[in-house]
Amino acid sequence: MVTIFIIDDEAILHRLYKDVFSIKGHQVIGDAYDGAEAIEKFKLMDPRPDVIILDHRMPNKDGLEAMSEILALDPKAHIVFISADANVRESAMTSGASSFGLKPVTIRHMLDLVENAVEE
Known about the structure:
Shape: globular
Order of helices and strands: EHEHEHEHEH
Radius of gyration: 13 Å
């Protein structure tokens, strides 16, 4: 079982991810709808999630800013960075993302990204 923290501003994706991960035996232990909320929730998490799914374009702090702050708090965090903008891939990966998914991400691909992030 993998524990997961979902950070995305689209509520429908939270529900979809939770359902899919639950079916596969994984557990969503937290969620946030923007980068600033994500940082505050992450600071309080104990234990920390195995994997963080992090969207790029969000209000208050984008994914790159949030990832930088999360990695400053926990350099070993496994972050699956998700974006509709392929041009951000290199920035995300060089900034510390474990993997990158281009939206729209299929359910199978999302499961692979999450499971591979834990194995690295």
